Structure prediction request, 473 residues.
Amino acid sequence: MQIWNWSGFFDYLTNPFILGGAFTTLWLTAVAIIGGLVLGFVLALMKMAPSRLLSAPAAGYIWLFRGTPLLVQLIVIYTGLPQLGIKLSVVESALIGLTLNEAAYLAEIVRAGITAVPQGQVRAARALGMREAQIMRYIVMPQALRIIIPPLGNSVNGLLKTTSVTSVISMEELLRRTQVLIQERFMVLELFAVAAIYYLVMTTLWDIVQRRIERRFGRAYQQLGSATEQR
Amino acid sequence: MITIDSVSKWYGDFQVLKNCTTTVEKGAVVVVCGPSGSGKSTLIKCVNGLEDFQEGTITVAGTSVGAPDTDLPKLRSRVGMVFQNFELFPHLSIMDNLTIAQEKVLGRSRSEAAEKARQLLARVDLSAQAQKYPLQLSGGQQQRVAIARALAMDPVAMLFDEPTSALDPEMVSEVLDVMTSLAREGMTMMCVTHEMGFARKVADRVIFIDKGEIVDDRPTEDFFGKERSGRAEQFLSKLLGH
Prediction:
């Protein structure tokens, strides 16, 4: 047995089976982030509502999903729910588990972003005759988004790696497929190295995308030298 | 145009406004002054319903502000307001700051709103800044944009809540100049301000509030003559004392 099989390593680096797994990791992340953001936004609004009828369920949800391991949530969804007659496929379970879990974290990020927009902005928008939904959409959310983007980017980065947890319910993402190959070929280090490289490529690419988005949203906040020289 | 009748307001046990009564006639300019914490900003915010009040009535252009069936957003769209801290929308260009409410509230077309915005930016001498963002402008420029933004809605009256208090001294006059020309054109204005020079020159009436009470409400010449109250006298001497 060799110590390190270079040709095996390079073979797997371009292996379509592993590449497919990485692709699954990508779309799992994308769907969970978008779904989590939508649900998280609703949870954030509920949690900020003056009525306890709205805020209490949201707080309870966040408490539950942030307070228990994703691993447990996935296993409950995939193997526990059938006991109640709810049978979900692996893909459905993985997507639902990741989304529900992510929503709990994103709700807090969204809430922090919305809270950070000064009340004076809302007052000014009201004074112009805008209605509450318009104020949220045109005034508060665009400003909150700028505040939300750095922690949101962090969540995307985290989620790219967290999707690997779904391998325990046999979701065929990058880690699972790597493990499948390992069981066939026993090239443990080579294959894990390939998986690690894929994860690094994905997180690095995301870093670049995130920096672009941040710059775009920061445009309005760049001061052009000293303000009095602007005439 | 604006009628304030026996308005009282409490924050819990603390009474911020005590039975305030006054009127602002169409085309009149009224300056509201008083020590900090006297309730003058609260009073002006009651006029367009940004603050609620527990007793009394306020009527703006025939609409009761406090009535439960009043469409407050609609009422507010007809009353311009300028804030101490400008409150321009930092994520929108100057142009978009002036057009967003025209489009979303009044339903004007993009081109109609932009045309109106251009006229008003020219009026406050800021045409060159249309594509910039608020934080790239000086305080005085931002406040002039804020006035233009309010005027873009074709308001029937304008409320000013300490419009020059957050400005560096050298920028105060550029804002007061705009306000003065508005007043000369017959705009109905209610201004909370400490600028006594502006009050003397432009206001038709001066209201002095202390501890939530309207203590003086008289024609400008009387207020700056000898007819003001002892409390207003004290306040003015502190303001002008050095």
Summary: DSSP finds nine helices and no strands in chain A. Chain A touches chain B at residues 120-121, 123-131, 134, 138-139, 142-143, 146, 219-224, 227-228, 230-231 (CB under 8 Å).
